[in-house]
Amino acid sequence: MSISAPERVWWTPVDKDEKIWVTIALIFCLVTFFMMPFYHVVGKQNTSSESYRIDPAEFEKRTELFIQQSEKVGETANGLPIVKPRGEDVYLLARQFQFEPALQLEKGKTYRFHLSSVDVQHGMSILPLNMNWMVIPEYDYIVTITPTTSGEFPIVCNEFCGAAHHAMLGMIIVK
Ligand code: CUA
Fold it and tell me: Measured in angstroms, how far is the CA atom of residue 94 from the centroid of ligand 1?
């Protein structure tokens, strides 16, 4: 059997329904594409872009100093101090496998959170709010936070950082 040439018009012309759906899909793609830069500028979800290079040992020292200078208001179930900052600066150090220290904050007061890790990359996720940041070693990343609701807000690590990643927790109490 020999190969014969296809018919001159071998394809089925695009019908009306298909044209409509392709147009809708294209419009949807364009809308989401332009929403990304638009929301980056207009949305209120962006955190600060303030960060500094820091030696992990130096960050650890500053966190210890912060704990010493803060008011100790209690202890968590696993023996971590709960501290109440005296100023607006708050240090939160991530390490395998916990966030230190536990914090007690005042509702309505604005804090400058210094986030860093002394070992590997971690993720800080405040529950049950959908707030997430990367915690990266050698960077003092500053996030401005004003708690508006009182209660207990556990922190979980949302970046796989080792064997006990799932057990890496912290705590923010707002009063
Ligand atoms: Cu720290 Cu996962």
Answer: 8
